[in-house]
Specification:
DUF5995 family protein; single chain; DUF5995
Length: about 230
């Protein structure tokens, strides 16, 4: 197995992405759909940072590089929206429905996780491999550990944002929406997509089409997760 090269200085810290997320957390209205997801993702990034500092990643440099490249994908989408540019298709449903009164906080959180895991993480793996001069297999441990943290967080998000048992009945449409998406399945699909994109890196036209279709498919799933529901 090849080893990743030393992490360039530009990606040695997560402080910059954490600072940007904290600004968003402080400035966005609490009920805003992007704010809901941002709070979730800020918690994840802080947890990854603590795990890196605690020596819980086998290759801290690679973990930092992946974490920062990953976060930059989300923050770039937010910046594109704020600058009047067109964000990736995977993020458009959340941005479009972020203030819809019929969309519940749990839907916002899962739609953001869907966009970020389903699309951004695959491209972040490829970005990191290019930056560090390594193969996706060299990042598999870091990918898995970040994924494990996300699964733990998703469970907590569901507990905190889930309606009470008196509201969440078998006939509640939210029950069916929650059952239609799985972070574990999304994670497996993302790893396969990252490997495919890396294999296609010398065929830029084919790789670009693959990435566009991935973006569109993840956006479609996000739109379904954000179906407005009756009270």
């Amino acid at each position: 197995m090849a080893h990743c090269e030393q992490v360039p200085a530009t990606v040695r810290t997560v402080d910059t992405v954490l600072a940007r997320m904290r600004v968003l957390d402080a400035t966005l209205p609490a009920r805003d759909g992007v704010a809901v997801f941002n709070r979730v993702y800020l918690t994840v990034t802080e947890a990854v940072d603590r795990h890196i500092d605690g020596g819980r990643f086998p290759d801290a440099g690679s973990a930092i590089a992946l974490d920062v490249r990953f976060a930059q994908r989300y923050l770039s989408a937010v910046d594109a929206l704020e600058d009047g540019r067109r964000p990736p298709a995977c993020w458009r449903p959340l941005f479009q429905f972020r203030r819809h009164p019929g969309v519940r906080p749990l839907q916002f959180a899962l739609a953001g996780i869907n966009a970020h895991i389903g699309h951004d993480l695959a491209l972040a793996v490829v970005d990191t491999c290019r930056t560090l001069g390594c193969e996706p297999v060299d990042l598999e441990d870091e990918f898995d550990r970040v994924g494990d943290l996300l699964v733990t967080l998703e469970e907590r998000v569901r507990e905190e944002l889930m309606p009470g048992p008196d509201l969440l009945q078998i006939a509640d449409p939210l029950t069916h929406l929650l059952g239609s998406w799985s972070l574990d399945r999304a994670r497996d699909a993302t790893w396969a997509a990252a490997r495919a994109l890396w294999a296609l890196r010398r065929l830029p036209d084919v790789a670009g089409e693959f990435a566009d279709r991935l973006d569109a498919a993840v956006g479609f799933a996000g739109r379904m997760l954000l179906t407005p529901l009756p009270d």
